[in-house]
Amino acid sequence: MTTHLAPALRSVCRRTFRNSTRSFWGDARKSASVRAADVQFGQPVHETHPHILKPGELTPGISALEYHHRRAALAKQLPQNSIAVLAAADLKYRSGSVFYEFHQDPYFLYLTGFNEPEAVAVIEKGQSDVEYTFHLFVRPKDEKAEKWDGARSGVQAAQDVFNADEAGDIGNIANTLPAILAGASEVYTDIGSTRPRSAFERFVIGSTKVDGLAQALKSSSVRRLRPLINELRVNKSPAELDCMRRASDISGIVMTQAMRGTHTSEKQLWADLSYGYRSQGLDGEAYVPVIAGGKNALAIHYVRNDELLHDGEMVLVDAGGEYGGYISDITRSWPVNGRFTDAQRDMYNMILSVQKSCISLCREDSNMSLDKLHQICENGLRDGLKALGFPKGHEVLDKLFPHHVGHYIGLDVHDAPGHSRTELLMQNQCITIEPGIYVPDEDRWPEHFRGLGIRIEDSVVIGKEEVEVLTKLAVKEVDEIESLRA
């Protein structure tokens, strides 16, 4: 058992290993020692990518010490003599040997900083709240495999870079993990409770060699892990907020640039956004965007993005970039030709007024929850629609505003999924505020609003007494939008 107090600084010490020598290949033919700075890893580290990572960082903006604090905070929530088990995401294939871009499981990334597939992390809690043991099972270094697929970090780096107390070959986990499980009074994991099944389930649980593991994970002592991690994830650290500010600032600039441009198709607009994120320093898109011209905006998650854009219509764009795994979430709606019609302006300003009102309440001293904000949003939209000539009745909003006003954001677009919307919002939590109205082309609605879909969304940080709008660089006032092409 390792006491993680002074050893929390161990990663900093290990990360300064550029002057040390070690054999990273675990192969007698490669027994000659090499400088760690010359070794290739499965993800950027400061020694190989100083333009991406600062000294001590495991992922952009997040230090090895912060990852330790996250594991320690989780361990403090666990009962004595219990363990938490997490599996990395799989590499997913679109056809044959053609794969999608790898995206690490956010829970696994949150606790480890390790950004490769085929890995398992175990956090073992002992008798004390200040002690835990971090086990990390990863793919070993393999010259033949790395010739084709690129570098792996390997077992030694799991300790020297990612601060694991115990590291092992993922191929041998069936011989190691059952003993760890057997010594635990309770096991916290989400393996087996989610779909699709992970590779960990297939080659560990499905193996005849580890029937004891399968039984252990099915026993009554197994509890859900995600609710415990969600309690940690919703509260953002200063480093996390900085990552989100960077993602949001650049995403806001790119969105404003898109509003300034003249686009003839949804796909062309999509391409400009995607290029803008990467060319200005982000890792890429945070999610598949909605680029919805005209009536396409009536589908909340329209992502085909393959229609032409027409003069006189609005285009709704729900998009954002990602930095270090942290996302930005923005929606803007604007006229394709750069000028609002009277009906478009009236509807837009009504929604914008409601959005501003909700954003102003995103403070800890307002005693707000997401559900309370949603009720306030609904009341504002209901009054606004009535003033615009829409019929009365609660069923009107069921049809015209079918989604919630907001959600948590962070490593996921919908961060900490499953976390309660009824809990009061606290300082440094991050949410979206996104009222919208989507008017079907039906006789029951005022004619000049039919087929109009408008949503306005910003990412915000809950403040003690003030609100921080992360996505403020994406303009949203009518005169600001129209002046972009004046």
List unreliable stretches of 5+ residues.
1-32, 202-213
Shape: globular
Which CATH top level class of the largest domain fits?
Alpha Beta
Distance between the termini: 66 Å
Number of strands: 23
Q: Could you give a short account of the major beta sheet?
A: 6 strands, mixed
Enzyme class: hydrolase
Function: Catalyzes the removal of a penultimate prolyl residue from the N-termini of peptides.
Cofactor: Mn(2+)
InterPro entries: Aminopep_P_N (IPR007865), Creatin/AminoP/Spt16_N (IPR029149), Creatinase/aminopeptidase-like (IPR036005), Pept_M24 (IPR000994), X-Pro_dipept-like (IPR052433)
Top keywords for this entry?
486 residues, alpha+beta, Creatine Amidinohydrolase, Chain A, domain 1, Creatine Amidinohydrolase, 6-stranded mixed beta sheet, 3-stranded antiparallel beta sheet, 33% helix, 17% strand, disordered N terminus, Creatinase/aminopeptidase-like
